[in-house]
């Protein structure tokens, strides 16, 4: 199981680093059981993680099922859904804001670490844009969540 997780993480890292964030091709309806009730927009193919088929994106996000079921953070599911199913947009991919990532990480990172799940580098919060009044990113408020406050 650990080898599968390591392989998945490696593929995920490679995929996100190679994604050009350029204009995307096809727009598809979100069908993932994890995301369809919280995402009303159509998403872009290929995805940020280079999934060219909706089925492969649905399968890949399932790796995070145990952590979503543990409810380690209310931010985790929205964050993952916006990474795996970025909104279809003529300007290119719209990423989740860093604050959404930080919210997911704050509650789940320790649990993931204890269980031997390595969070892919591609999902490192510094890869996502900071939330500002003019930022073009998906904010926690989109899911009725408050942005994470910086700890002093």
UniProtKB/TrEMBL annotation:
Disulfide bonds join 27-88, 35-81, 101-125. Keywords: Developmental protein, Disulfide bond, Signal. Residues 22-140 form the FZ domain. CDD domains: CRD_FZ. Residues 1-22 form the signal peptide. Pfam families: Fz (PF01392). PANTHER family: FRIZZLED (PTHR11309), FRIZZLED-2 (PTHR11309:SF126). This is Secreted frizzled-related protein. It comes from Ciona intestinalis (Transparent sea squirt).
